[in-house]
Amino acid sequence: MAGEKKIDGNILAARAFARTGxxxxxxxxxxxxxxxxxxxxxEGIRFIAFHNEQSAGYxxxxxxxxxxxxxxxxxxxxxxxxHGLAGLSNAMINTWPxxxxxxxxxQADVGKGDFQELNQLEAVKPFVKFSGKAHKVSEIPALVSxxxxxxxxxxxxxxxxxxxxxxxxxxxxxxxxxxxxxxIHPFVPIWALPSLPPPELKQDIQTAVSMLRQAQxxxxxxxxxxxxxxxxxxxxxxxxxxxxxxxxxxxGKGLLSETHELSATAARSLAIGQCDVALVVGARLNWLLxxxxxxxxxxxxxxxxxxxSREEIELRKPSLGLIGxxxxxxxxxxxxxxxxPFALGRNHPWxxxxxxxxxxxxxxxxxxxxxxxxPFNFQTPMRIIRDALLAQGSPAPIVVSEGANTMxxxxxxxxxxxxxxxxxAGTWGTMGVGLGYCIAAAMASPERLVVAVEGDSGFxxxxxxxxxxVRYKLPVIVIIFNNGGVYGGDRRNVEDIQGPYxxxxxxxxxxxxxxxxxxxxxxxxxxxxxxxxxELQSALTEAFLKRNPAVINVTIDPYAGAESGRMQHKN
Length: 571
Ligand code: ADP
Hints:
Blueprint lengths: L5 E3 H12 L3 E4 L6 H9 L3 E4 L3 H15 L3 E5 L3 H16 L3 E7 L15 H5 L5 E4 L6 H13 L5 E7 H5 L1 E3 H8 L19 H14 L3 E5 L1 H5 L3 H11 L3 E3 L19 H7 L2 E5 L20 E6 L2 H7 L3 E4 L2 H13 L10 H22 L8 H12 L7 E5 L1 H10 L8 E3 L9 H11 L5 E6 H5 L5 H6 L4 E7 L33 H7 L3 E5 L2 H14 L3 E6 L16
Parallel strand pairs: 2-3, 2-4, 4-5, 5-7, 6-7, 9-10, 9-11, 11-12, 12-13, 14-15, 14-16, 16-17, 17-19, 18-19
Antiparallel strand pairs: 1-8
Helix pairs in contact: 1-2, 1-6, 3-4, 3-18, 9-14, 11-14, 16-22
Bound molecules: adenosine-5'-diphosphate.
């Protein structure tokens, strides 16, 4: 309408996202998206500005997992989009909801070699459930609504929106914008939706319960899909009603406290090796669970898989597949059991074996952990960190873990007592996620302390994001296990080193004794360099109390730990 007030695409896009109710966006600004970021802030969306889109993308993916709302990543065109693919693919592989938004070159200049030109829709294709480009300003609201909706629908994953420069600058009448925006509804995470079990599930629920009842050696396995679904309430009821031991995957840890008597974490090999019926909830039978195949699992084990994805059930061909949300399906199972609970009790032979094996293994590990080994191995500092984390009580800190040895050793020693308090390298074993995950965790759960426990190599991927921690004053403590390289220092036999570059440092090694703590100090955060139990304890006490950004640089024996962690056969 002539003379009517107008807004541009930047403002319209910001308003569209604001209407979804998603109030955090991670990214790196630049041409052509700076105005969009500023507009988003004006609309009440917190914009967390990173140094690199890769870390921002990892943050967006983890934010999606922790909150159940799609994490938003904003990048510039071309190289920014390419860097962002790290986060987008991470969301896809971990099945976490995320929307990547990239600016792109002017539509009139496509194909002419424009500034940062890339066919971004093609580039994102392998990593998204949905992608779309706004060809004109009026297409923005519907695109935003679709991308946010698809990211969390069914099996969660990544979506992509492309905003060309000309579309961001194009104007639209305010009345028309309002009309289009009215079509966007606030996003509701799956865990906040009413529990409506599909009627066709009823028969399968009965079958599942009777399989569990008849089992001699039943086991419940819970993964990060169950954590995402916030299935902890019904899971706790199920374990109480049945007395069946449970085994979490690495990120399922904490759904029920690992201090629970029926936690089979410390009897993992026995539990998976000898169970006869396994109820697997929100976890794929992929490499992390040894594909559900012998020799790690019994050849005749019956799997009952609970997964929101039909595709996953069809792929694994379990004895029984229950397609649905983990929280809802477990609630239905509990309803079916309720009138006739089958609490197995610790005198049940299987439960008794799991409990005694777990306590035997905990004792064995306790003997190793009791020793103070200096120069530090991996176990001694990990025990000190475990005790400091447990001493925090509730709300429990969120632990971010990466690095080969640091993550492997940490997974066995650190105990999770609350759901969604562990983020690690995940399904792809992605290293470099640490700082991004820390920032996402601090944004998603501001009441919790965030503690990264990572190797020096993992830290190096995104170390400069410690500046982001300081800038946003986040309660994040980064503990670096510094053994001078990937897996450790130079471990080669001198006689094996040949060729013209034999005097180069080993491909696995970094500068020994690197002062990573001073990187944090460069930005005004607190740095600690520690090499003894007393120094580590004192640094943890102070840093956990102050809850300000800190790096604790822990000197580890460069010969401690194994090359490739526990996956040497693959390297
Ligand atoms: P883990 O790494 O903990 O073993 P995975 O990432 O392998 O877990 O598996 C998570 C599974 O959870 C995926 O197959 C995904 O489809 C599924 N999932 C995601 N959301 C839900 C949900 N709300 N309810 C049930 N399953 C879900």
